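A further point concerns the way the authors explain their paired sequence and structure data. Nothing conveys this as quickly as seeing an actual entry. An entry of this sort, consisting of the sequence and the corresponding C-alpha cells, reads as follows:
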Amino acid sequence: MTWYRMQSRPPWWPPNEPWPPRHGAYAWRRRRARFARRMALVFACFVVLSVIGAINVASWILAALKGSPYLPSTTTVTAIPFMFAVAIAFVIVAGGALTLMRRVGVPLTDVVSAAGRVATGDYGVRLGEQGPASLRSVARAFNSMTAQLQAQDEQRRHLMADIAHELRTPLTVMQGQLEGLVDGIYARDDARLNDVLGQARLLGRLVEDLSTLAHAERGTLALRKEPTDLGALIDDAATALAVEAAARHISIRVADHKELPLVDVDPLRIREVLTNLLSNALRHSADGATVTIDVEPRRDEIAVSVRDTGVGIPPDDLPRIFDRFYKGPASQGSGLGLTIARNFVDAHGGRLSAESRVGEGTVMTFTLPRTMA
C-alpha cells in the first residue's frame, strides 16, 4: 500500500478531485508541472538578464580596445553577478507571491460568489475547504451558517403549512355550519349556535397560543414574577382537572408539599405549565389509572414531575414532542401545548424534560430555580 492510500484526504487537495488519487504518479505530475513552470520563468529571466549583461560586457571591451576614456568602472562590472543574484531572488519571491495570491484569491472568489447566491435565497450552496488554514476555517463557518439557514428556512416553510392547516380546520367547520344556517339546512337553535361558538373559541385559543409562542421564542414574553407557593399552584391545577379525571375514574395523587419554599415565578404561566402537563397525562391514561404529581426540593432548584401509566412514547418520537405542531397518535390539540410549556419554563431559568417507555407510561419533569428563601 502506497503512502497516499494510508492518509486521509489532505486539506489542500482540490475538492473536485477524487481521493485517494487514481494512481501514484498523479500528485507527482502536478508538483512536477508546477516546478517546471517556475523554473521556466526563472530561466527566461536569467536569459534576458544574461543578454543584457553580455551587451554591457561587450560594450566595455570595445570601449577598452578603442581607448575610450568613458570605460565602465570596476564596481559596475563586478556588480553584474550581484544583479543576477538579485534578479533570481526576485523571480523566486514573485513566484511565491503569485502562488500565495492564487491560493488566497481563488477561495475568496468562491466565498464572494457563494455569498451572492445566499443573498438570492439559495441556502444549499457549500464551499470547498481549500487554501490556507484561515480560509478553510472561513469555509467551515460559511458552510455551518448556510446549513443553519437552510434548516431554518425549511422549518419556516413547514411552520407556515402547519399554521394554515390548523387554522383551516375550525374555519371550515364554522363556514359549513353558518352556510347551513343561512340556507335553512340546519335549525337555528342554541345547540347549533353553540357548535359554531365552540369552533370560534378553538380558533381564538389557537391564535392566542401562536401569539404566546411567538413572544416566548423572541424573548419578549412578559413575566410578572412574585413570591409564589408552588404547592398551591399544584393543588389548583389538580382541582381544575378533577372533574375530567373523575369522569374516567382516574385518580390524581399529589405528593406532600407542605414544606416547599416560596419561589419567584409568574404564577399564571407556571399554572398553565402544570395544567398542560396534567391534561396530557390524563389524556394518555387509561380509565381507572392513576396520575402522580411529585415534588422534589433540591439544593438550587425545585423539580416537579407528572407521571402517568399510559401507552408511553416511542423512542423515535420522544425527541420531537416539544416541536411545534407535533402530535402523537392520540393527540387532539393543536400541538403547541408542550412547546409553550417548555418556553415558559425556559423563561424562568428552568428546564422541561421527558422520560418514557412504551407500555409503561411517561414522566414529564420541569425544574425552577430556588431563588426564594
Notes: The helical segments are 25-65, 74-119, 133-183, 190-218, 230-240, 242-247, 267-283, 337-347. The radius of gyration is 38 Å. The longest strand covers residues 361-369.
